[in-house]
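Input sequence (103 aa), recorded before submission:
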Amino acid sequence: MDAESFAKLKKGKVKIDARIDLHGMWVSEAHVAVRDFIEMNHAAGKRCLLVITGKGGITGQGKIKSEFPKWLNDVNLRALILSFTAAAAEHGGAGAFYVYLRK
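Predicted structure, token format:
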């Protein structure tokens, strides 16, 4: 992903094709949901996804939020993902991520 496109992504200036909210899920349940969500949307040809992990309560150190980047770096998902970054404030800020998929 080139620098200009990544800057647009970070600012929330890219059309979001699909979103998933992981609030209320157990970590294991969220992991499966994220994997399935990414695989399904990649197969459908979608590019920009919004994954809402939540901030993690008062501390901001939620388990799903902290595990999420590790899940994306799994060898099976990494091949589908071009980039990911924290979402802009209007899309959840520190409690959400943009995931940009490869073609």
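Checked by second reader. The chain has one domain: 3-101.
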